[in-house]
Amino acid sequence: MAQLVGKWKLDRSEKFEEYMVALGVSLPVRKAALIMPSPTCDIQSPAENQFVIKMNVPVIMTHVQNFVIGEPFEDLVPNGEKQMTVVTKESDSKLIFREEKPSEPPHIVTRELEGDEMVMTLQKGDVTCTRVFKRA
Length: 136
Description:
Elements: E1 6-14, H1 16-23, H2 27-35, E2 40-47, E3 50-57, E4 61-68, E5 73-76, E6 82-91, E7 94-99, E8 107-114, E9 117-124, E10 127-135
Antiparallel strand pairs: 1-2, 1-10, 2-3, 3-4, 5-6, 6-7, 7-8, 8-9, 9-10
């Protein structure tokens, strides 16, 4: 997982607004997110299978996820709700975050190293968003 560790800056996105709609993010928050400077992502691994991911969206928020692979943790999703999340490691360069709520489609976020880019795929129901980060 050392390949994902480091600082990343958003380079490009596809279907980000559609994804926020699928999550139930309010219109004012969606519009603000689309005009703000590009977010940065800092991924650290202080111990084996433990990660701290800090997503910073200037002016709007800093979202911190502190977790151990395979152990459920409480996470704040973009619509402001708290949900239990479990992260699995599919390979040395791929993490999968899965949040489930009864009677709703799962919310799945994948972070994967592809070449020199980190590709973040966000899926809620039938909406899939791709956000590509480059090393900062």
